[in-house]
Amino acid sequence: MKFELEEISPTEKKINVEIPHEEVEKILSKKYRQLRKRVRIKGFRPGKAPRFMLERFYGPQVTQETVQELLETNIPKILEESKIEPLVELEYDFEEIDFKAQKPLKFSAIAEVRPEITIKDYRGISLKKEAVEVTDEEIEEKLQELRENNAYLENVEDPAPVKEGDFVVVDFDTIIDGVKRDDLSAVDFTLEVGKAQIHADFDSQLLGMKVGETRIIKIQYAPETPNKELAGKEVQFEVTLKEVKQKVLPELDDEFARDLGDFSSLDEIREKIREELLKMKKSRSENLLREQLFNALIERSSFELPRRLVEREMALMVEQFKKELEARGLSLTDIHSSEDALKEQYRPEAERRTRLALILGKIGELEGISGDGTGSGVFTEKVVDKLIEWAEITEVPEGTVEEELKKRAEEKAGAGEKGDEEKLSGNESAELEDTRETEENDKPDETGE
Fold it and tell me: In what helix (H) or strand (E) does residue 91 lie, and over which residues does it extend?
């Protein structure tokens, strides 16, 4: 076996390999001997079938197995001798394989490797950490949220005509293209007028209705509505108003606390809220600190990114997004997108993640922190913890760092460097938001946008 190296780029090396036919033949002969013992071919006694007959029936299979064994035997030797450490699986390109012609096996392999990385002054990076505290006002705000979440509805006697903010109970039949759809109709459906649980136009046409009244409500759905049965169509609803209800908030007292669970007093709930808010704020402060660190590391280094490593990260991000869609009962088609379009949207973030992983891997190597050199898993946390330990940290008021990072992101966006979240703020994310609102309804989401 012989090989030669060719540098394609700082992150890619091409290995041209030639394996003599004699070496190939040794593996081929072994494979056919093993095969002869296992298979039966009509007209020949067990174990006596000639090789040319085995080649006729099993040639492609044996060729594939032979090539695989040759790769498994020779590639590790080549990589070790060349001191090449591939970041991802090798990309192979074979010349025509014709073992019958007794030709050598020739192929090339592209190895993606870590680029040369130089990082300046990664010790002593200046960072700002937001001080955290929980105010009484924040606790009371959360208490009010709990109160709202535990409110209940009661019937209004002799109600006024429906106005925005009322809770109403309706029956409705849904008619599409002149056909009543029982699966999209409802009985005793409760909604809050003005929340657009079904559609904003549905709510506006409920205004002024009285209990016992029936109205025909017509809604023209937009062509981009996720529900394909509704998209671009005029849908008619025959609505009967049955009840108007009002929301009743529980009193904030010890009884309310006991109703919520394992609490004996309202003060216990306040203390629990304080603990949870403090925990959340500390986590957020740590995340903002890390974000500053990552930005600083990226600014202190410059190198070419491994193409396939970025592509792998993009693919992982797309798969994650698809799973999130599936959890909502949607697909990429439903949001008028595709894997290729998403990959391009995710590219900036994928490049950022890849760059950070390689930087952290290099720092770990320089500092003797054990890991795989790609900045993954627990290894990443070890390096990040060390960098934060070495950093010069200044405490600043809450909200300061977040505002600075937001301003930085806006400046980048203005310069045409939009990242993943900004790009997803277009049609796809808008439609996802629509569907998210619909899923929170009591009624099946077929009637919502």
Answer: strand 91-94
Residue 270 CB partners (closer than 8 Å, separation 6+): 139, 143
Distance CA 87, CA 362 (A): 13
- Give the whole-angstrom CA distance, residue 306 versus residue 355: 9
* CA dist., res. 110 & res. 78, Å (int): 12
CB-based contact 209:161 (threshold 8 Å) = yes
Q: Which of 62, 78, 151 is nearest to 111 (CA)?
A: 78
At position 299, the amino acid (one-letter code) is E
Instruction: State both tokens at 231.
Output: 């998209």
Contact yes or no for 35/62 (Cβ under 8 A):
yes
Per the structure, the complete domain to which residue 327 belongs is given by 269-418
Contact 260, 273 (CB under 8 A): no
The whole-number pLDDT of residue 131 equals 95
In 3-state terms, what secondary structure has residue 413? helix
pTM of the predicted protein model: 0.71
| Nearby residues of 210 by Cβ (< 8 Å), 6 or more positions away | 161, 162, 241
Condensed to tens digits (0 to 9), the pLDDT of residues 265-308 reads 999 999 999 999 999 999 999 999 999 999 999 999 999 999 99
In a domain, 284, yes or no: yes
Residues 184 and 237 placed together within one structural domain of the fold: yes
- Which is nearest to 15 in space by CA: 86, 65, 63? 86
Q: Is the same domain home to 32 and 75? A: yes
Confidence category of residue 101, pLDDT binned at 50, 70, 90: confident
In tens, the pLDDT along 198-207 reads: 999 999 999 9
Specify if 257 maps to a domain: no
CB 417 within 8 A of CB 347: no
Q: Are residues 410 and 290 in the same domain?
A: yes
* pLDDT single digits (tens) 153-182: 999 999 999 999 999 999 999 999 999 999
For the chain, the domain total comes to 3
- Closest Cα to residue 191, out of 166, 228, 216? 166
Instruction: Let me know if residue 191 belongs to a domain.
Output: yes
Q: Are 300 and 406 in a shared domain?
A: yes
